[in-house]
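We now fix the convention by which a protein and its fold are recorded. Think of the row as the fold of the chain written in a discrete alphabet. Here is one such record, which you should read through line by line.
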Amino acid sequence: MSRLAIFLLTACLGASAMAAGPIDSNRQKAFGDITVHYSTFTSSFLQPETAQAVGVVRSKNKGLINVSVIKGMEPVAAQVTGTIKDLTGKIEKLIFKQITEKGAIYYLAPYTVPQQEHRTFTINVGNRRQGPRFQFHPRTVPGRIMNLTQLVLASHNAGKLKELQAMLGESVQLRSIGEFSQVEPEETGLSFVENAILKARNAARISGLPALADDSGLAVDFLGGAPGIYSARYADGKGDAANNAKLLDALKDVPDAMRGAQFVCVLALVRHADDPLPILCEGLWHGRILHAASGEHGFGYDPLFWVPERNVSSAELSPADKNQISHRARAMALLRQRLGLK
């Protein structure tokens, strides 16, 4: 089997840092049309079922290296091997196990958390259909994963990407999950919170990067909170116009006083796919449903959502104005605060 890539990374992994949280590595290497993503963290951050599949005990004293291979925006199977060398020169073989779930393919290998300050990982990734060899010399791993410069947004929606990037600011780059995969995870949750976490974990697993997911929708009082988590597919996936038409039909002859509604946004940010402490931020935007569409901006239900404080529909707001007061803006303001962003 020819090796597609060989790269070395030197990790500053003190035992005390391991106890405090995930190891500081979260990186990627590009080889033509293939990108290798890798990160390290302690096994205590694994979900129990994943720990069982890998065959490790969840512990702050056991580290894991996670490798995934992306080709043409899709995860692909690969032969992954490697070693770890400590400061004394002792070399230990890394045993990777392939994990496949919900369209994601990744490889995990356990190792003992070092007492020394540095260790060197050598990872060999050989894709079954490629043969070039690449070599990288040791380099220092960057700072802690929450010192974010990049986030993968768990959405293929270009409008949502643009809107959230504007709210997040220039200090953190948002990348679409569409760069890594076109596979949509099945949203099996029964709430915005559950689905946001599910999508964030899936995006982190596929990309190997910290991930942000937005689960949002419209909750209409007269309809008992519907369309709710089914807002995007309210009209069986036929698009915004069909969704709006179905909503207007459901509220036919309902007076203004009973057409109250709120846009809901839940943001979930995970540092890695098995992060046990996702950051959750919720934003609510109260208004009511109009009797006919009005406005040209925005997307989704914006033309039907009346904004009392502006005396216009959401679709009549400028993008800049909407990004100050919307449900996503409110949730993003909380997230920026949690991340210490100005």
